Amino acid sequence: GENVEQHPSTLSVQEGDSAVIKCTYSDSASNYFPWYKQELGKRPQLIIDIRSNVGEKKDQRIAVTLNKTAKHFSLHITETQPEDSAVYFCASNTGRRALTFGSGTRLQVQP
Amino acid sequence: KAGVTQTPRYLIKTRGQQVTLSCSPISGHRSVSWYQQTPGQGLQFLFEYFSETQRNKGNFPGRFSGRQFSNSRSEMNVSTLELGDSALYLCASSLGQGDTEAFFGQGTRLTVV
To answer: Is B60 in CB contact (< 8 Å) with chain A?
Structure first.
């Protein structure tokens, strides 16, 4: 089955700095890569996703890149703000099974 | 449109008991997946149901089971509860075919004492 590895497990940055979280996957059939943000006590919510036919996608301060050859994808958050503090999960899917999640990254943005 | 609804929100059970959790997906969604979340353990996949059939299963013991009804609502059952089963149980619904977003419910917080 699919295996998704996520690094780092914790990340602390100063407000205004950038944050990068990286994931690798094992199933070459995976074609959908979402990122979820989970704030304390809340449900995970999708913040951005990318499909295998594109290499990069951007939404304001958040961007995701995908390298299908190397089987890795990354989340980039620029100009971080305290409200970005949360746990971030990457995931992958082939469209015919449930999402496989990475182990999560706890991001702390220091004001 | 209504989101994913999980009931109950909180449960306290005693070791050895059994428990049933419910998940009502977004209307039109045919896939329901269940995840166990414990501190520091991320989202551990339990199983996925699509059109009333279990399509995928994670590495959990047979005490964990589920089912899906014709209206796509799903239930998860845990028998012979152990202290280690204390966790937040999340369900996620999606269309289930193709690369589509999964929407999570608020979760059921199960405490086993």
So the answer is: no
